[in-house]
Each structure stands twice: as C-alpha cells, then as structure tokens.
C-alpha cells in the first residue's frame, strides 16, 4: 500500500467532510449544466440539520488481485456547525476530531484530547453537496433506475478533463494514487453510482470505481493496473437523536 496514498485518504476524508471554498479559477467545465436530479440532491442535502455518514476506500493491485481496505471513516453532524469525525487509515493511527463552531478537539495517540481553534466552522452537509456538484461536472452517459425508495444514477467520469481543470474530483476518487499523475498515470476507466432518496431528494450514497495504469517510479506501488473504489453513505437525516458534544 502506498504511504502517500494512505496519508492522502486521511487528508481527503477531512477535506470532504469540512466546508471550504475551492481555490481554483472558473473553468469551462465549471460552467456546465449539472443534471437536475443531482442538483436537486445537492440542494436538499446541504440544508440538512443532522446526519451520520460512513466512508471507505478499497484498493486492488493488478487485474486479478483482491481488494483490500485502505481507509475507513465515519462521523456525525448536528446543527450549529457541530461535527464528530473518526478516521482509520490502514497503517496509520486512528484519528478522532470533534468540532463545535470555531473550537476543535483532537484526540492524540495517547488517548488525550487537545483543544484548538479553526478559522472556518465545519458544515458537513454543505461540503458533501459541494463535492457532489464538483463530480457532477464531469459525468456522462447517466442512466437512471429505481431501487425501492431511491433513484440510482450510474455513469462515467471524465477524469482527464477533471485533471486538466485541477478539480477536487481528481483526489476525491483517488486518481493521484501514490502521486502517480506526475509520473504519467493513465486513466483506464472511471464510473460512478449515485443513490438519491425519492421522497426528499437527499443524497444516500456515492460510489466511484476507478481503474488506472500506474507507471514505473511511483512510491510503494508496483507498475500496472490499480482499481480504487470509494464509497460514501449518508443516513439519519434530521434525526433528533444525532448529537455532537464536547469530549468528556
């Protein structure tokens, strides 16, 4: 497993779950019209008052290798910028953070909490909506189906255009695995599956499936095919039992 990739998974988890303003100039891709079903899901999701979420990334080396878990994370959000994040990257210590407004508590490896301050409050629903819209800029061949009470959209991701635009989508789906883009990683295929709740248009899950061909020279990664699957699942929408409190 690439050490650089494991670290990027940890950083990505906190970036995806933390509100931020994208530091990039508008591009032609950024002006495209997003599929109205995805825009409706983003608009509904960013207004949520509370939720829980789980994230996982698996990596398969080679065409016939077995997928292995590279990262898992989970958390909760409550109104007034209250967030609880737990990240478990394989090969690195477990990380736990609680943020309430501008105050942040982080658990150290010794199990003790340290307190700090953040400039931007943590609005997780907005961050999920932002990243959904960012990925939607590069989707094509969308096919819709019904699965119980959900609409499921499947399609392709134009990763090369996302790379050219320096979109956060590149890192959200793992395209820079091990820092391979600077060495000439080839994008073989990329697809996405989005599940949206029919009743209120909330985002239920996003799964991306990316296959790349890694060249020689990438740290900790043998050259050849690598398949990276990321999965984000949301639940407990506006559930009054979701509570985020300061550490005891």
Question: How would you sum up this structure, described in words?
Answer:
This protein is an alpha+beta fold. The chain has five helices and eleven strands, in the order ααββββββαββααβββ. It has one domain (3-235): outer membrane lipoprotein receptor (LolB), chain A, CATH 2.50.20. 19% of the residues lie in helices and 40% in strands. The chain has an eleven-stranded antiparallel β-sheet with strand order 6-5-4-3-2-1-11-10-9-8-7. α2 (36-45) packs antiparallel against α3 (124-136). The longest helix has 14 residues, at 3-16. It is globular. Mean pLDDT is 87; it is low at 19-30.
Note poorly predicted spans.
19-30
Number of strands: 11
Main beta-sheet strand count, sense and barrel state: 11 strands, antiparallel
Task: Give the H and E element order.
Answer: HHEEEEEEHEEHHEEE
Report the total helices. 5
Average pLDDT number: 87
**How much helix is in the residues?**
10-25%
Spatial sequence of strands, sheet with the most strands: 6-5-4-3-2-1-11-10-9-8-7
Estimated share of beta-strand residues: 35-45%
What is the straight-line distance between the termini?
Answer: 35 Å
Any idea how many domains? 1
